[in-house]
Amino acid sequence: MDNARFADLLASGCSALGVTVGEDVGPRLQRLMAELLKWNAKVNLTAITAPEEVLEKHFLDSLAVLPEVTGATTLLDLGAGAGFPGLPLKLVMPTLGVTLVDAVGKKVAFIKAAAASLGLTGVRGLHARAEGKPETEGIPRAQVLIARAFMDLPDWLGLAPAYVEEGGRVVAMLGKAQPDAELQARAAERNLRVVSARSYRLPFSGAERQVAVFAKG
Ligand code: SAM
Predict the structure, then answer these.
(1) Ligand 1 nearest atom to the CA of residue 159, by list position
(2) Each residue of 88-141: pLDDT tens digit?
(3) How far is the CA of 127 from the centre of ligand 1 (A)?
(4) How far is the CA of 8 from the centre of ligand 1 (A)?
(5) What is the interface pTM, i.e. ipTM, of the complex?
């Protein structure tokens, strides 16, 4: 995809999602895409390889949750895979401290290489398995904990609170929208409350997604 088409699709996608990104973000996302596709030719990082799909399903979907992350100073992305949503969010929020954790070493190797290639500081890739014991796992707590396509919601809400600082929040990016009553019930089971929940559609395919935010108490 040439630069102009990438810029057009990014602008129209962001506009459809209601998010704003700086002018420097497009070229950096293009570089991230080039790294991802280069690595993916040798190492299986993602099944999504068509450039327009990478832009929509990885980059724009990651940026769709900017409203839920805005204001945070630290972000922990558990089960980040090839860096989603943490890497695109970092590109838009340069002062955010981001830790991306995955249990698969080659994915973490990619995250580290991509961050270095983009000249990002304040990004840490961590090869670890999250099982609810951050101290022994060496995983730092953060103000905002996020995951996309990591676990089903009840398991995620059981695991997540251990990784959040006091007063912080847990963000769940869900592939399939859950009714409000379901979110409330799953939160209550874990002594959490629903701070917000909204559905959105990806701008080109129209695929439905949901983002829900939880806090303790
Ligand atoms: N969040 C990325 C995305 O949306 O593109 C990756 C999603 S992928 C379906 C789930 C990822 O979670 C995989 O990369 C897997 O290696 C990782 N994973 C699974 N269980 C894990 C655990 N207990 N701790 C850390 N990573 C885990």
Answers:
(1) 23
(2) 999 999 999 999 999 999 999 999 999 999 999 999 999 999 999 999 999 999
(3) 11
(4) 31
(5) 0.99
Q: From residue 136, how far is each of 117, 128, 129 by CA, in Å?
A: 30, 10, 10
Domain span at residue 108? Answer: 3-216
23 alpha carbon – ligand 1 mean position (Å): 30
Neighbouring residues of 68: CB distance < 8 A, sequence distance ≥ 6: 144, 146, 171, 196, 211, 213
What's the token pair of residue 7? 């810029």
Closest CA to 48 of 63, 65, 62, 33: 33
3-state secondary structure of 145: strand
Residue 48, domain CATH: 3.40.50.150
Q: Domain tally for the chain?
A: 1
Tell me if 100 CB under 6 Å of ligand 1: no
Q: Whose CA is nearest to atom 14 of ligand 1?
A: 81
